[in-house]
Every structure is written in structure tokens, then in C-alpha cells.
TrEMBL record:
Interacts (via PIP-box motif) with PCNA. The lineage of its organism: Eukaryota, Metazoa, Chordata, Craniata, Vertebrata. It comes from Ornithorhynchus anatinus (Duckbill platypus). This is Abasic site processing protein HMCES. GO terms for biological process: double-strand break repair via alternative nonhomologous end joining; interstrand cross-link repair; positive regulation of isotype switching; protein-DNA covalent cross-linking repair; proteolysis; somatic hypermutation of immunoglobulin genes. Residues 29-52, 287-341 are annotated as: Disordered. Its EC number is 3.4.-.-.
Amino acid sequence: MCGRTSCHLPRELLTRACKYRDRRGQPRLPEWKDPDKYIPSYNKSPQSDSPVLLSRQHLEKNADSSERVIAAMRWGLVPSWFREDDPSKLQFNTTNCRSDTMMEKRSFKVPLGKGRRCVVLADGFYEWQQCQGEKQPYFIYFPQIKTEKSEDSQDAMDDEKGWDGWRLLTMAGIFDCWEPPNGGDLLYTYTIITVNACKGLNSIHHRMPAILDGEEAVSKWLDFGEVPTQEALKLIHPVENITFHPVSTVVNNARNNLPQCLTAIDLALKKEPKMSSSGQKMLQWLETKSPKKEESEVPKWSSQFFQKSPAPAKRSSAGLMEQWLKKEGETPSKKPNIQKD
């Protein structure tokens, strides 16, 4: 299952992280629908607004279905056929939908039939492992691989190498549009599709989000004009390209919107590992969440000081951390402890 996520990037950087190529191969940045509704947070829970990608054709009938829009939608799908005047009166939980039964349930089958597929964006998601009567939270995300940025341009549209920051987790979702029966604003909501957990996550929880790993998968899931539902559903399966690390129980309270929610802890000590001064500066930057910083000022915060578990990626986040510290002229006091599966 998936009941809590982090998506802290300010709107401008989140847009850059979603750079893509349209059907003609032209680099594009998705445009926003109702951008003011997006509020960055390290601790997003159901009923909050989260950023999702969808095809522009859902909003403009004559648009190219390969073009994308970002919209802040409410987490927890409200079916278009729901006839109560208050969406909170919905009697069943639609935060997630199981991949094995979603075509049997009207709430999900109807919007899927209309091509209402979306990609939920996040830094990663949180999951809790039952351990000796206690629940230990983990932060789960894509392994981060450093790329070299172009030195010729600071503009995302001109930079052929693309976004060089944190790789956003891209989860398959279904959205719907509910119109209040007595009139009022349309309400866009979504649910996250879940599948059986991959081998790497099975020790933490038996379910996980359906993750779309790579641009091709994201493109096929979104492009309902060219990719029919049955073909798109072949993308829904467990993905092994995932990594994680334990985090503080501060994340347990959804009101705690803090960088510490996703900072790695040492399970043996039940506290955060000692962090270098460079790491502390990076954490201070995260706390500001300032969208006014220029790209050149944005630190490569990805996972260079996180402890994490082994992942299929060739270059681990822990290794990137040591490289970054060496570049900054610092030496870690000790090697990070790698959390085993």
C-alpha cells in the first residue's frame, strides 16, 4: 500500500524535473493547471493535494495526447458518479486501488475506460515495518545516479542532458473528475495503483505502489490517445529498481512537515547518524524550501548523505555521498552503515 509520500521541491524545480519529449521529439516542460494549489511537503497524507502528470488531451480535446500537464489533485479518488453533496461522505477508501481487482470495481473501471490515467509525482513514499510490536518507518525511492550537467546552459529546455537533481518517483495512478450535484467547482482526485511488493521490499510490507520506471513507461501510461487500456495495464507490475532507508518516527504525525522526515537514522541507535558540516548545510537548504534560489545555488541533495539499503543500481547513494564529501574537501568520520534488506 501507499499512504504517505514526500514531494518537497518548489514548483519551478518540480517542473524542471518533469522535462520530457513530445511525439515529435521536442523537449518540453509540462504546463501547470491551478499551480497555486500545489504546496510542497515532506509529509503528504491522503486528502492533501499532490502533483500528478496527465495528458493535455484530458483538458483540451484537440490537444496532442503526448503533451503533459501537471495538476495538483486531491489524494483519494471521488468517482464522477458519486451523487452526495459532500465527497467526505464516500463510504469506502480510495487512497489506493489494487491492480488485481481494479477492473472489477466501478470506482476505478469507469475512469480507466475513459483513459483517465495519471502519474503521481513524489520524492519517494513512506512505509512502516512491523517489528517487535513497534512500527519502524522507511523512506523508499529510486536509486540516485549522478549525471554531468551541461556547462553551456542553465536553461532546462536547452540542456540536452536534462534534469540533474533528485530523480522523482513516478507512480501509476487513476484520476477522476467529480462535479457537485448542486453546482460548484469541479474536484479532481486520484488513487495510487498498488501491486505485490518486490523482493527487496517484501520484508517491510507485502504491497507497494505500481512504479513506472523510465520515460517510456511514463509516456505509455499517460498517452491514452495512442495506448489503449489493456496495453497500458501491462506496465503495472512490481519493480525491483528501488531502494530505502529507515527514518525517524517524526514522520508518523502527518502534521510534521520537516526535512527530518526523510533523513536516514541509525537503527541501532534510533537516532540520526552524525552528519558532516556540508551535509548540515544541505539540510539547512532543505529547510528553507526557497523557490527563489537560482539553479547554480541548488545543492545536489539527492542521496549523498543518506544511509540506504542495497539497490540494483550500479552506483549506490552511499557512494555518491562519499564522492560529494571528497569534492567538498571533507572526509566522513566513518563509512555509512548500509541497511540490509
